[in-house]
């Protein structure tokens, strides 16, 4: 069948014409040529529906004054309507040719889809999700925009199997399959992490093209860390053509957000390109006294030094300031005390400031034989500054309102993390035994210093009564004894990965990493942890059942050094998290829809357990209490997922995860692990473009089963029942350049808690409304 006669479904968003033509050519597998002056500053209303190639091009060009003239099989040339040739001015400009090949860098911006085409987060091999033998979920630019997700917090809550526990306005903590997650930015390690436990800011989504979440142990690219997986925030890149947009968002609790995003060639040839994203975001809260202000900017320049060499440099800065809240206390037995969810229980003079800066340089060198070398270096700094810190202690007597105190107060506490991160690898094909295979050789890791300074904590407490407490009347916090502590850590390794084409249908991925890890006391210079030559293996087997479905099985693991000592004075072996996974993945509807089903078992072993055979003695080889590496936790479960375009007008992202974790060895053997994390979690997001209208409507649903948490002596138990949260959104395309988005979260205004402790369990956000106006230039 001729290309022009082929019928395909398209969902190309309104916007700059050249970007839309690039996507059309890729999906239709045709070539479109034109001179730059013809498309300069032109926009299209987009293309939604089922079209043959020629009719699709005509629809895409409506209102532009241009037409596409067929020059042969699969080749089209743009010209002004009713013109047989380009003008003299146009003729002196070189023609731009867009060829119909799908880009393999995974860029999601401008695709209008919830589907990820390619990813390399798991192995550095550029693979489709179907070719990747692990569970990986991508939140695309379109999904972020449709739901009005402005921070990493919002995005991670949309991923099935990732559990978020909010810690007030400062952020949250995240787990996957029962365990913590690592962080990456553009595939490079980010030691400050993704959650507030690591003191990081809420990474703003204005900077990202997409967010990739790899679930399960990911030590091949991480070295030391937690076995829950890796969150990779892939940032926006400069574009080949000029594009700019500005947006304003207003919302509940006096929220106002302004974002500007400009990308353009910086020289006429397009060999140097730049992009700048800047934002200002301010909001109060449903909780009294609470606010959060954010200012951020990201700038990047790419330069083609030669046809085979590209150099890039970027800087990203973000600062969040505000007042964090501590939740609402339960009664002494863990029952609801009936206090308003808007109430604040702390010092109204408490202040929190978090900022980070990332400087990055990168080199992309195309080599002979289809090989490629990529090398990047980043300098990262994260600062967490707390003034007038305080904590709520005691047990609340509902009848009298007494029993609680404001204690553990500190005038100032500051933590600073500085990191030098490197990532360099070469990848390409090689031939062996008559078949072509792929190989990656690389080095990555980071050296980072974590320093804390402060005025010291103040002994004593201030009793309060919950029925007459005034957060603004606690008085000044006195200075305590100055303190300073810190660690300096190196986590670096060499890795190799090969993808073996055993047959046309059977692919084997093998890999290994050799890591060196060392942690020192930054004040004394003494080494506290050291692991040398730690080997992390990886294996995955993928079998293509047919053109749509593949079956896979994989093994991955990760290690985490521990400082506790055994009876002979030696440091215990590292904790090891090993993930075994098997599943089926598919690419449906002409590869526009990804589906997956997987079962997994994640085993964390070598957990430290107190050695009761050795008496506690400060003079023994352990320095007190001795331990053995005998504890084990096993997490088992099921993951189901579907992401992409179910039709030309319908995007969908859905997932269900079941996780059951239990202590299999140690003093808690037979007990459930992570009772504060749900066993069942369901996520569903969808957006539908109403045919022949300017409206798109969508929504999302999050559902989890009940959870609880108890004191170690069972003096109290706090509970959160099964939870269903519903969000809705609607977009109106005012013109090809202007759109308005209305969004509401927690539609039913469900009241719910994030469970940490008796006096620290913040309420989740009530019903929230926002309206966003976006204009492209």
UniProtKB/TrEMBL annotation:
- Please provide, in alphabetical order, the Gene Ontology terms of the cellular component aspect for this entry: cell outer membrane
Name used for this protein in its record: Second ferric pyoverdine receptor FpvB
Membrane-topology descriptor: Multi-pass membrane protein
Pfam families this protein is in? Plug (PF07715), TonB_dep_Rec_b-barrel (PF00593)
Q: Which UniProt keywords apply?
A: Cell outer membrane, Ion transport, Iron, Iron transport, Membrane, Receptor, Signal, TonB box, Transmembrane, Transmembrane beta strand, Transport
Source organism's superkingdom?
A: Bacteria
Q: What CDD domains would the database entry show?
A: ligand_gated_channel
DNA-binding keyword on record: no
Q: Which GO terms describe its biological process?
A: siderophore transport
Family statement drawn from the similarity comment of this UniProt entry: Belongs to the TonB-dependent receptor family.
What is the organism field in this record? Oxalicibacterium flavum
